[in-house]
Amino acid sequence: MGESVIGVDIGGTNIRVGLLDGRLELIRKETALTGDFRSVDELFGLVQRLIAVVDPEGSARKIGIALPVPWREGTERIVDSTNVPCLEGLSVRQAKGYFPRHQVVLENDVNVIALLESAHGASKGRKHSMYITVSTGIGSGLILNGDIFHGANGYAGEVGGLIVSDNTLEALCSGEALEKASRLLFGEEATAPMLFERYRASDARAAGVVALWVERFSNAIASFMQMFDPEIFVIGGSVIHHNPWLIDEVIESARNKVLDHLKEKIHAVMPAFGPDAGVIGAGYAALNHFKGA
């Protein structure tokens, strides 16, 4: 079974904390709403209480914490924490200080999933891969030569800001963008799932929105292919989870937009890990970072 580890996934909506064994099997998990914390003390106080619930015996000595912020090796202070504002400006030393009994590693929330999929999931055995999540927003993690590529400032993989057509990828292709399009077509109560329901019912207006989404998202995939040349894309998130057929549509379109010798080298799959990937990935990041320690 090996040593146990704590995985903490701090998101803009939920905080998930889990105790995992050495095989990355979840033993216990707790979830709480992120809420509007007035201070870092409130946030990490809640995390401490959740850790006490999942690991009442204090068996784990390592904690991985996934955060929705840019990250790189050597980061000293958290910046651009728009989803969890109380973290803005917090030093890494302060963050680790809330867990004096543990070895703590912090990492970007999408990066930990990219690492997990690379080591144990859909892109296992590939040296170069790209994980992309399409949910409320859009994010990604780049695995180059078997490790996360952070970039000089920790912003590598922040692909939601990529300019596609006349706006960013996130503004045009995220779940939020699809919901806005659905409301424009079908009224203020409409949702992204309703858009796809209408699409499956052969609604021409919904089909037009989906076709435009495929066109724009495939533009991004073609660009990523020619910039980073990954062996495989792992594409997940709620939009893809509920509409997995979109992957084939996107890849077929992207193949018409890359250099000829790359056309048959674009491959994409669904993630191997589901909703708990952030917690498991955070735990794996800690085990990987402190292996042998």
From TrEMBL:
It comes from the Bacteria. SUPFAM superfamilies: Actin-like ATPase domain (SSF53067). Pfam families: ROK. PANTHER family: BIFUNCTIONAL UDP-N-ACETYLGLUCOSAMINE 2-EPIMERASE_N-ACETYLMANNOSAMINE KINASE (PTHR18964:SF149), ROK (REPRESSOR, ORF, KINASE) FAMILY (PTHR18964). Belongs to the ROK (NagC/XylR) family. This is ROK family protein.
